[in-house]
């Protein structure tokens, strides 16, 4: 049985989903699995998993059924809502059937997800990187925003959280959750102080006992740090952060001439993006589960604070302990 700490943090995220701490274990391609979400629910936070982590819609349906049965608290599904996701229609149907507590939409318009899944009671939270897109999804009826900042892993945004969160708070009426750069309790404290209703935290959970990736990937998240994270457009066609391994250094981080030309051609752009995405995801999939020279490991700079491969509970407890220390230190300064 998990013993929760005394600290209670009250935000839109904790009140809406009845969780103790305002933390979403962020959806990570190939890293997130059911075991991680089930464990997260025992620790007072909630996890989210990409639907694409299951190879087929049939396996996705089996996975979401297990989460409904075994999660002690809420859980979410991440949907890629652009044309690269050929399974989107079926994934939406499955989410309508099983009604996850929330869905995080990424890389496209959430309109269909809001219309169909929102009507079933699922909260729809949208990844955004700027104010313009935030206002668009708000007008479509999104329940909250995931402010993907420049410290995020994977498809990071261009703006630091210290600018992005206050900007969204000023101009949008729906809640804002910050994604990126939180690897310590003090960072969680500062994120909430900026006005965020919670933090979406991914990279610190790569090096966990429960994650399903290879020991080499987990160890890389321990051995490498913030200075080793680079942005590449060669994985999905959209800039994505990866660990700067020797293989990444060899292939470079920019698309070659042919890739760049195809992505700029109006007639071929859609198909080029789909091909780039498919090839990139296959490369990441191969690297995630086996040791290989062709290593492409997605991660964000917050792996700086991963020093050991640990259980999820240890990481959550440490985050909250550090948060408590930051609160106390701040209060002491106010006296």
From TrEMBL:
<keyword id="KW-0560">Oxidoreductase</keyword>
<comment type="similarity">
    <text>Belongs to the nitronate monooxygenase family. NMO class I subfamily.</text>
</comment>
<protein>
    <submittedName>
        <fullName>Uncharacterized protein</fullName>
    </submittedName>
</protein>
<keyword id="KW-0288">FMN</keyword>
<dbReference type="Pfam" id="PF03060">
    <property type="entry name" value="NMO"/>
</dbReference>
<dbReference type="GO" id="GO:0018580">
    <property type="term" value="F:nitronate monooxygenase activity"/>
</dbReference>
<keyword id="KW-0285">Flavoprotein</keyword>
<dbReference type="InterPro" id="IPR013785">
    <property type="entry name" value="Aldolase_TIM"/>
</dbReference>
<dbReference type="InterPro" id="IPR004136">
    <property type="entry name" value="NMO"/>
</dbReference>
<keyword id="KW-0503">Monooxygenase</keyword>
